[in-house]
Every structure is written in structure tokens, then in C-alpha cells.
Amino acid sequence: MTLEAQARAALKRGDLPAAAAAAKALVLNSPEQPAGFFLLGVVAAEAGQIAKAVPLIEAAVERGPEAEHLAQLARLLILLRRDGEAADAARRAMELSPSDALTLDTIGCVLARLGNHEMSVIPFGAAVAAEPDNLDYRYNLAAASGFTGRVADARAHYETILAAEPGDARVHYALAILSRQTARANHVSRLETALAGARRPEDVLRIRYALAKELEDVGNTADAFRHLSAANTAHKQAISYDFAQDAAIFDGVEAIFGNPGNALVTGVGQLGAAPIFVVGMPRTGTTLVDRILSSHRDVEAAGELQAMPLAVKQLAGTPSRSVIDPATIAASADVDPAMIGEAYLARAAHYQRCHKVRFTDKLPANFLYIGHIARALPDARIVCLRRNPVDTIWSNYKNLFASQSAYYSYSYDLMDTARYYARFDRLMALWEEILPGRVLQLSYEALVADQEGQTRGLLEHCGLEWDEACLSFHENSAAVATPSAAQVRRPINADGVGKWRSYQEALEPVRAWLQAQNIQTD
């Protein structure tokens, strides 16, 4: 067996010391060849030493680029938030016409992480063609198909997976949210069977969410709430969430921007009106507005970018692993806003593929960064979606966000979500006080009731000329990777208005609490 084969065999069985020894011997024997350096990099990556792995794989690429090596380099660069370099490595890997399924799937995953779901379908499809029985590859293709509007293809791939793995909770949840279920066509019975057989807490969580969604679709709100309540109670306990974690972040933002005596570094920021920020609580119409704007001839959707949070974190220089925390917010007060603007635009550029004159950044949590945006990008436009508070809280509670994301930890408890909404509402009032007129606070209900009138106001705020295509946003073929994917491919409708009233008894404590905080609920 060759040294390369020895190293690969050791990696496959998880024996990292043996793999490292064989790879080192390969480097000593053939220092001009890429294989040894590549395998040493893979060993380092498997050991969690990503920063050490990258230069080793780069050394392999320098000795003669191979698709496998470039694909793995792209994967690691994504983990290090070096998105531009990752995109370049993935492109070079595809140009080498790879044929092995793992390399193709890896390229697809990188493209998906970069928000390029349309392009990811190509390598994902090739990976499944090469290894049709690999269910992970098929799941990735199914997800990309759903994001890009190929709903029938997505459904077929998901069903193929379930035929082989009937308990796959990821697939059950994906199928539930892929489209609206009906009394005649739903998966409730199958989901109940899957729930009975689920053992891992994360599987129970996803299946209960799937059941809640489908039961709501068919009008069984009592059982829908029962499953949601059980799922969320268990998950909140598992992640040990305390609202004080989020309260401290709001406190930090208000401390640096809401205190007139607080000295912020002065600067003019980066001029130019290219970015349009669509912000707000999740599930309030941000995806809808993003689709309306990106249907305009001069605007492209860049996606839910982490560019502003990462720019602030990078320049604040705090050592914590959290992207946003009180220390990072406090340190950001000392950063030149022009540097934040420059860092933001550099990161955002990697997600602009059409090179139109304007682009949208639809990260809802950017409402926390409106002060930074206003200083760093003084010409940027900001739109904040506002929806009925109880509908907002209910929609957050019933939606399964990325379950490991700290952004949405509040959403597993109704009262935590209400408290979060109240702090959001207070922060938006602060922005209006110190940045009057800078943020368009757009009512979801008003948009539904008067699509054209509100769209005209939206475009005017964003400095855009009228474009009739914005009224036909549902015909926009761009990918959607949010839970709203099915909704925004339909014409505008009032289905989501007043949805909370189907759960009025369960939500009465929330409504009463909001009113006690002087937050109107009707």
C-alpha cells in the first residue's frame, strides 16, 4: 500500500496519528508533490486545527491544483469567514471538472454557504448522479432544489430519502415547510409514526415542529399548539437560555448610541447608496420586501449577510467567540465608522453576482446595527418591517430557526419572545429619535392592504424609480433560503394577518403583557 493510500485509510477509520505519520513520510519522500501536504492539511482539519490546515492545503494547491484539494480549501476558508477566497477556490475546483461525489458535494456546500443556491444545484446534482445511494448528497440537492423553486424535484428527493430512512427528521421537517398541506394531502399520520420512533432530542424537536406546521395547515390548532409547546419547552431547557443574555445585548447597543454623553469615534463613513438593508424581527415580511426590491431592474438580492456583524466584530477586536456580545458592542464605539463601512462592503461584494448598482442585505438582526450602519454607510437605505406584535411573537415561536443559532434563542418561549419584541420596539423608537426619518418603518399589514401604494413609498425611500416588476415579485426566479420560500412565490395575500387569533386563548397572557408595556396589539 502506498503512503498516500495508508494516510487515506487511516483517515477513513479515524486514526489521525497514523494518517499524520503517513502524510509526513509522503512529504519527505515527495516534497514536490501535492498529496502529502493535502493529507497533512486534512488531518489538521479533522483535529479542529483549521488555521493550521489552510496553509498546508494551500501548499498542495501551489504544487499543482486538483479539484479535491481546491474544494477542501474552499470548505475551510468558509469556516474562517474568508468568503471571497472560498468562492475563488470553489470556482477553480469546478473548472477542473471533478467527477468524484465528495468533491462535487463539497463544492455545492460552499456555494450554498455563499448564498449561490442556483449554482449549487449543478455540483449537488452531479454528486447524486455519481452516488445515488448517498442520502446526505441527496438531501443537499433536495434542499437546493427547494430554495430555487424546483418544488417537485425537492419533494421527489426527500421522498427517496424517507423510503430508505423513514425516521429522518430533517427530511420530515423540510417536507412539511416545502408547501402548504391540505386535509386531503398531508403527512400527519406518517409524522406521528416518526415521532413515536424518534429517540434523539433534535429529532423529536424537528418532527414536532413538522407536525405543528401541518396540523395548523389543516386547521387542527389545538394539537399544533400542543406539539409546539412540548418541543419548545424541551429545547429551551436543553440550551439553558436566559433572556438576560439578549437583554445585555440591547443594553449594550442603547448604552453607546442612546447616551448623549458617550463619545463615539467621528468619521464620515463610506459614501455610496448601493446597500439597502431590510431589517426587523424575523417572520414579519422581510423576505417579501426583499423580493419586491430585488424584482427592481437596478437591485439584486445578496441574501442574509453576516457582513455587518462580522465587520463590527473584526474591527472591535474582542476575543470572544460570539459575533455579538456586550464587550464587542462597547469596543465598537472606538472604531472609525469608515473602516466598518469598508470592511462591510468588502465582505458584501462576495455575494453580489449580478453587479447591479444596488443590492439588498436581508439579515433581520441588522436592526441591532442600525446605529453602525447609519455612521458607516451614511447613504445606505434602511427599511424595518413592522407586523402586529402578537402575530410577530406567534410566528417567531412557531418557526424552527437554526436550532444552534444564538440569534433566535429567545423564540422557544412565548414570554421570552414577547420580552424580546418589547426590547426591539424600544430600540426602534431610539433609532427614530436619534436618526429621524432614516429608517422606513414599513407595516406588513399596510403592504398587504395596499400593495402598490406601499411599494411606491418603499421605492421612493430607497431612492429607486418606479418599476412595475416590483408588483410581480412572486415571479422573481431568484433562490429563497428562508422559511418564507413557499409564501413569496405566491401573489401578495392576507393569509398571515391576524393569524394569532387562531390561538387566542394560549396567547392571551402575551397580549395582556404587551398592553401592560403600552404596546398596542390591535
TrEMBL record:
- Would I find Transferase among this entry's keywords? yes
Give one GO molecular function term: protein-tyrosine sulfotransferase activity
Keyword list, A-Z: Transferase
Superkingdom per UniProt: Bacteria
InterPro entries, per database record:
P-loop_NTPase (IPR027417), TPR-like_helical_dom_sf (IPR011990), TPR_rpt (IPR019734), TPST-like (IPR026634)
SUPFAM superfamilies for the chain:
P-loop containing nucleoside triphosphate hydrolases, TPR-like
Q: What is this protein called?
A: Sulfotransferase
Q: What is the lineage of its organism?
A: Bacteria, Pseudomonadati, Pseudomonadota, Alphaproteobacteria, Sphingomonadales
